[in-house]
Design goal:
316 residues, alpha/beta, FAD/NAD(P)-binding domain, 5-stranded parallel beta sheet
Length: 316
Amino acid sequence: MTYDVIIIGSGPAGYTAALYTSRAFLKTLVLSGLEPGGQLTTTTEVDNFPGFPKGIMGPQLVTDMKTQVERFGAEIKQEVVTGINKGTVFTVTTQNNEYTAKTVIVATGASAMYLGLPSEERLKGKGVSGCATCDGFFFRGKVVTVIGGGDTAMEEATFLTKFSPKVTIVHRRDEFRASAIMLDRAKKDDRISFLTNKIVEEILGDTEVTGIRLKDAKTGEITDYPTQGVFLAIGHKPSTGFLQGVVELDPKGYVVVKRGVSPLAAQTETTVPGIFAAGDCVDPRYRQAIVAAGQGCMAAMDAEKYLEAHGTEVHA
């Protein structure tokens, strides 16, 4: 069986795309990966997704999206995609199977890069976060730490001063990758302090973050530094490795989309006609669930228009 559309990914972008394609009576398959739901599954309370005045837990939001998609007949398979080939139709290969489709929507997302510490993994959602915009609100009045030395670290730290009386930027070197203007802005804020030449050895705390253990990069001295929140700002990695040689990626691995200048032009089509992309695998700037959902809607509508333009029968 050849699907009208195969959607790769099951976060807000993927599920929203599936909602729109399945409601348009397009035969839709969602390949969710081994960890369905993307970054929302590692988020505790989501307060900034419209329609939930009391907030909603991240995993519950993903479950509700999945239920809504299934209501309209989309198939969902928990498989990891390893490649895409273009012929008369697209062949999408997973670890165990091959599926064919007339169009493909890539919504594989991106993940915050972490330090790889067991304590960091254990305390995710309990004081450890990879997104200040998502979680900063929950740290009102608390002392927090940002790990990193680039523009993202400066941006996150500046944002966190809206909620926290003290934000410390911890960097493993004494020189920063951040642009001069971003670094200067952070240095001028008296709520932001800096610890340089410090390597995070451990996140401290049992049920919530209480501090970090630091190693001095020059002297080797170990010290414990109290903090109530740790925000990782050492970069994001888009989940696009399987697209190497398939569509154009930018130097950081994000999918390049051809944003047409005409109001009626597809905004989510990749450099390969018939392959569309949405969400955090395209967007290194906003990285918000609501933005990803909006782009998922756009990709679905672009795919539907593509099918119509190529005279492809729509399944009823």
